[in-house]
Amino acid sequence: MPERVHERGPEQGGDADAGRGRGGLLRAFGLAEVYNPSMVPTLRPGDQLVVQYGAAVRPGDVVVLRHPFRQDLLIVKRAVRRRDGGWWVQGDNPFVENDSREFGVVPDELVLARAWVRVRPPRGIQRSVTGVLSWVVSAVRPVRPERSLSRRLRAR
User: Fold this and answer.
1) Could you say which of 4, 22, 37, 50 would form a disulfide bridge with 117 (CB–CB 3.0 to 4.6 Å)?
2) Has residue 63 got a pLDDT over 50?
3) DSSP states of 63-115 as a string?
4) CA 36, 48, 22 angle in degrees (round to 5)?
5) What angle (nearest 5°) sits at the alpha carbon of residue 63, between those of residues 62 and 69?
């Protein structure tokens, strides 16, 4: 089953590219929801991502992109390394291969956004100030690049 992401972008239902570079800084950000386990343990199904459209991508960044064979399908992957004509992307879950190992290099124009913050949905939290603060501390995290990932993959 291919991974998919539900996107709530700056244009609320239009083309995801429409938010790039127009309408100010706030229009450059959007939300994406993760549905599949290809990025476990970094991201889990149900996680929300705050993404920035048109942001510069570096190796190790988590990105939202159009699937090269099904461009109506949005997926979340880690940009591992730059190759001629695009990015080699892989999921963090070694058991799911719906990534460049299956479809090759992803052209630059299909990489839409870079993830900045992950928000885990509140499941089973206590409805107290302490419970909410505990959820905030554990659920809201920056999505940091995995800088050593490309070195680890080359060493195999």
Assistant:
1) 50
2) yes
3) EEEE-SS-TT-EEEEEEEEEETTEEEEE-S-TT---SHHHH-PEEGGGEEEEE
4) 115
5) 130
Q: Which helix (H) or strand (E) holds 2?
A: none
pTM of the model: 0.73
Please tell me the distance from the alpha carbon of residue 58 to that of residue 79, in angstroms, as a whole number. 7
The set of residues, in sequence order, having a beta carbon less than 8 Å from that of 38 and lying 6+ positions away, is: 3, 75, 76, 77, 91, 92, 93, 96, 98, 99
72-102 as b/e, with b when 16 or more CB fall inside 10 Å?
eebbbbbbbbeeeebbbbbbbbeebebbbee
Token reading at 87: 């990015």
Residue 118, both tokens: 């992950």
For residues 54 and 48, what is the distance between their CA atoms, to the nearest angstrom?
19
| SS3 at position 22 | coil
Q: Which two tokens stand for residue 108?
A: 């630059």
Q: What angle do CA 106, 107, 108 make, to 5 degrees?
A: 115
Which residue is associated with the tokens 């244009």?
A: 11
Is residue 135 scored above 90 in pLDDT? no
By C-alpha distance, which of 74, 63, 61, 36 is closest to 144? Answer: 61
